[in-house]
Amino acid sequence: MIDVILGGSIAASIMYLVAKHQPKDVRKINLVFNNIGYRVGNLAPRLRKTRRENDYTEYIYEVPPGLVDDPKLSEILPKTLRKPVSVRFNGVLILRVYNTNLSSRFNYDWKPSKDWTLPFGYTLDGLFVHDFDKIPHMTIAGATRQGKTVLLKLILAHLINSQPGNVEIYLLDLKGGIEFGKYRRLEQVKSVIDSVEGAEDVLQALLKRLKSDMSRYAKNGYSNVFEAKEQRRIFIITDEAAELAGSKICREALSELCRIGGALGYRNIFATQYPTADTLPRQVKQNSDARISFRLPTEVASRVAIDEGGAEKLANPGRAIYRTHERHEIQVPYVSDAEILERFAKYFNEKEVDIHAEKTRAKDRSAGADIIDISGFNLRDKQADK
Questions:
Q1: Strand 319-323 to strand 290-293: parallel, antiparallel, or no bridges (unpaired)?
Q2: Total number of domains constituting the chain
Q3: What digits encode the pLDDT tens for the residues 9-62?
């Protein structure tokens, strides 16, 4: 009996000493496990490996059979440790505890890509890129002045910066053209549309072109742009897309372009404040494997946008959640209109503008305003570049 008591005392003492000399973060993590009941019966996760890097420390836990990750961990651990924490589960529980917070400001660095990848933002692990050849379509949500339009301008800038000879861009600027009208004369920008009527015309024309491409691919035995060695990509970017909700023509055209167009080089980016069933066509949502959300007012809105909560908690403008089968919190790089206009001066030409945009300009001029004002950027004319 004495041996049993002594043995138990020694074991308890060893466990106490081990716990006492554990790093402070590990002790707090174990307390969280205990407080939220993260265990199976009497079996709790056991720390198996610690990996320290310059920017973070990673703790790898072996978990009892039947135990998976718990959403509470992502919510409670950062508050308990007072540090950013990422939680991943891949047979083992991987907790990455970062030394610093993610910066609230990054500027676009103007480094071109050789392919169709874009630097969508920075995470705590560094630069995060999206590949439009792997995931061709996306939806973007977010409240006013939280970063949607800045991201769209970043996409525009990087596409032209990286693929000036291969990209065609159709901009549906349903804020009346005030955000993208200034880019109307860029040679890569084929249309800037500022009305639902204009959007119907452009989308119908693109749908007709898509069907022609389908016939050409079928005739030549191609299934996609990679087999055809097609370099060109066609981007349809819609800002304030909810304005299209009342147009059956637009809804059906966008649905068809998303359903079929991805394999043939068509890329759809659908941005709206609050993508609901009324504003976001079902086929567009189903075929948009990337979903991005900036700050939204409620958890319900977040679940509509990205199928999970969290967007309502984003801290500052430019901060977003990028959601595919994985989740990343990113800070979108900032790029200004002045930078874009100055760098792309050589691409401006005197092409004819869209008839629908011209109607809008005429109305604005009659009211004493002009939505296209690029006079201050010393734009070179087409002849100067020849």
A1: antiparallel
A2: 2
A3: 544 444 444 444 467 999 999 999 999 999 999 999 999 999 999 999 999 999
